[in-house]
Please model this.
Amino acid sequence: MEPGFWHEKWQQQLIGFHQQDINPFLVKYWHTLALPPEAQVFVPLCGKSLDMCFLAEQGHQVIGCELNELAVQQFFEENQLPMQQSAMGVHQHYQTEQVSLYQGDIFTLPPSITAQVSGFYDRAALIAWPESMRTQYAKQLAQLLPQGSVGLLVTLDYPQEALSGPPFAVSPTWVETHLSDDFDIQLLDCQDVLADNPRFVKKEVPWLNEAAYLLRRR
Model:
């Protein structure tokens, strides 16, 4: 799971993790965070997700961090958004009216970038890490988020031995064990989505659960 792994995926456009539609849990549960329209919302490992467009449509100022340059460029091109690019330390900063994306490593993202955020959204970041690296990412996310900020976390869970990730299986037990030191956790929903994921069906994965959690940074 070195950076080269993701750069190769984007270069070859092997991006099955990219959803062509806005995530249903985002549409259904975002309002439960009760964020004001003008709130800044952080989206880690954002790719070119259309979920950022949904968040901007709610009035939010979206701040994303994405490792791959092509992903960031495609987000602006495919959504026909004019943008300005500038260097921001070791990151490249891409800016349009309501979306500000920082291209580079999330582990070197300055905390000042997210100091004013009050919301966050993680749909494809936590599940992108194998278990051996996941805790490090979770701690970095916590360090970037101000106390009191609230977020929506969407995970996938399945028998990990049935399929090599990514996406990797993240169980409710893992969430409670590894996130509870930094976040208050509330399970909002959990649904079997196996039928909607042909790759998992083809690999004969017996079950696939998608869960949504409300997290509040302590």
